Amino acid sequence: MAEQHESAKLAVSTVIFALRSDDETGGVPQVWLPLVRRIREPFDGRWALPGGPLRVGEDLAYAAARTLDDTTGLTPSYLEQLYAFGDPDRSPGAERVVSVVYWALVRSDEAERASVGQNVRWFPADELPQLAFDHNVIVEYALWRLRTKMEYSRIALAFLGERFTLAQLRGVHEAVLGRPLDPANFRRTIEASGTVVATDEYLTGTPHRPPRLYRYNDTIDLADAGPLPRQQHPFEGRSA
Fold this sequence. Notes:
Low-confidence stretches: 224-240
Structural class: alpha+beta
Shape: elongated
Mean pLDDT: 86
Radius of gyration: 20 Å
Helix content: 25-40%
Order of helices and strands: EEEEHEEHEHHHHEE
Distance between the termini: 32 Å
Number of helices: 6
Number of strands: 9
């Protein structure tokens, strides 16, 4: 008798990051992400990443954007494939599901337009409850990816917009890295890197001398500018 093999289902999920602040943080921005409360087993009632099954004939990136819009109403301009997670035991008591995970970034003003309610809520990325499936591991991986890219790419643009001050840029780095940065050292490092270009514009509405606005060097890609440092990879050798 021929051996029978059961096929796994394919799904997409999205980790979407935004910088937000509240009274508990004293107004200091932190990395937050929206989660969706599950309303069916497995893990009924637990929070999970936005996502859903991949439809026949559907492009992966389109599916990620579709499920994100369906659950949160968000349509981020930056959407990148992160990793595929397919441990056989990640969906206990149900058929095996392999998830292709994307990650996205939105500005604070975009995040405020998210559809939140009883089953959709924002959470600080470093203070998550126990999530459904392996979604805590997925968020941890996405945070590592975000923080690594901050060191060598212009990915902060997704949080800032086209024009920004160096103080605003430093604030993004501090929020993502979770630690303060010396303003003078940060300015010297950024200006020496050639990743930003000073404009002839200044920030208006400030009580003191208006700071100059900068833009990113258009010759540098929004995402990667070089290989990932493998020696810092906390997931090396871990099953996906």
